[in-house]
Every structure is written in C-alpha cells, then in structure tokens.
Amino acid sequence: MYKSKVLVGCVLLIYILFVVFEFNGNNMAAFTLDFLITPVIALLYLFFARKKDVFFSLFMLFYSLSDFIGAIISYFFDKKDSNVLGMPLSDFDYLIGNGLFILAYLFLIIKIIKSLNVFYVLRNFKIHLIVLTILNIYLVYVLQVILAPSLNLIRDYYLEITYNIIMLVLLSVALLNYFYRDNKKSLYLFIGALCIVFSEVMQVAYFYIAERSLLNFLSTTLTLIAFYFFYQQTSLVDESSEEEKYMVIE
To answer: What is the mean pLDDT of residues 61-86?
Structure first.
C-alpha cells in the first residue's frame, strides 16, 4: 500500500513539474516529464492492481513503452544529428512511437470487444453503428486534411490514417460497450477512451496548427484523466447487462 502511494505521488509530482516547465518555456524538460507519466502509471497497475486483464496489461505496456522511448530520446539524444537503422532519429521515434500506440489501442479494443456479444450489438444497435461510422469517416477526413501538408512521405500518410482509424474505432467500441452494459465499469472505459481521443486531437493541434503551451497542457491533462479512469475500472466487476440477463438466443 505504501509503495503504491509513493508511485501515485510520483505521478502527481511529475505532472506538476511538467506544468511548471511547460509554461516556463522549458520544452525539453516538459516533453521528457510528459513522456514519464504513463510509464509510472503502468508500473502502478502492473505491480499493484489485484485483478489483471491480459489485453489491458498489454495496452498499458505498449502505451507506456512508447512514451518511455520518447522520454529517453528526448532527454539523451539530438534528433537532428542521430541516426538509427539508416534513418534520422526523429523518423525512428515517429514510426516506432506511433506503431506502439497503434498496438496499444488494438489491445484495448480487443479487451473491450471480447466481453461483448457482437451479434447482439450488430442486431440491436444498427442506427448507432451507422451514425458512428459516418462520424468516424468524417473525423478521419478532417484529421487527414490537417495533417496532409506536413506529411512528406506516403508511408507517413498511411501511418497517420491507420492511427486515426484505430483511435476512433476504440472510442466507438467503448461507447457501444457502455450502451450494451450500462454499468460503472463500462462508463469509466468510455470516459477514458473519450479523454484519450481528445488528448490526441489536442496533440495534433499542438504539433500541426500552433505550438501553444495550453494545447500541450490540455493534451497531457486529458491523458492523465484517461488513465485515471482506465485504472479505476480495473477494480470494478463487469456486471452482466440487462440484455445478457434476459437475452433469448434465436
């Protein structure tokens, strides 16, 4: 219990220092601290959570690993002068970091889907699925319009569109899971996914529209809130939905 409180204190301290450095204009220190928040939360989950789900653990592991690699590169290396596997370190960080995030989101999607009755969802949430599909297509289009001028390689374009599709699928699956189960655990998962998506949108705005400290602050804060709800839902029981209790298999 004491060790878990120490890690929680570390998360809060890192976040406070991040805010201080971000608004004081020390971008390198702010980025390094930003990347350290989720690895500490992952340690908190992996060592102290009583009930661990394999796919959620993989989500935490891959997400935090991406941030941890980003922290090391940000602190120890000059991205302009360093090369890895014949490519600039900035490209390596971009490809590996985003690839790990995509894997993390895929594992979280699997974690949510495996507790759903997919056939029931397809049969009873047709309108929801149609609306979510149309909305997701529009959002992916808007994000690609924003990102396209900054993407010089076709590789980067496809990586970004894959990233955005997976991210929005996660949000849609979390929302459908909440509609399906309508309990506290599914609500926390949805809030976490929603905060993650808004965090990503803030990050896109920061990197591709205007490098304002407020945008980076909002992105990191939303990520912290997302992981708070993700962590809290791990201690809740995924009670059967009313549909599952009274479902008649046709």
So the answer is: 73
Q: Hunting for tokens 């989500």 — which residue is that?
A: 59
pLDDT tens digits for range 186-205: 999 999 999 999 999 999 88
Give me the pLDDT at residue 77, please.
61
Q: Which two tokens stand for residue 112?
A: 């949510």
Segment 190-248, tens digit of pLDDT: 999 999 999 999 998 888 888 888 999 999 999 999 999 998 888 887 665 444 544 43
Inter-residue contact 105 to 170 (CB < 8 Å): yes
DSSP string, the chain: -HHHHHHHHHHHHHHHHHHHHHHTT-HHHHHHHHHHHHHHHHHHHHHH-SS--HHHHHHHHHHHHHHHHHHHHHHH--TTT-EETTEEHHHHHHHHHHHHHHHHHHHHHHHHHTTS-HHHHHHH-HHHHHHHHHHHHHHHHHHHHHHGGG--SHHHHHHHHHHHHHHHHHHHHHHHHHHHH-SHHHHHHHHHHHHHHHHHHHHHHHHHT---HHHHHHHHHHHHHHHHHHHHHTTS--PPPHHHHH----
pTM listed for this prediction: 0.88
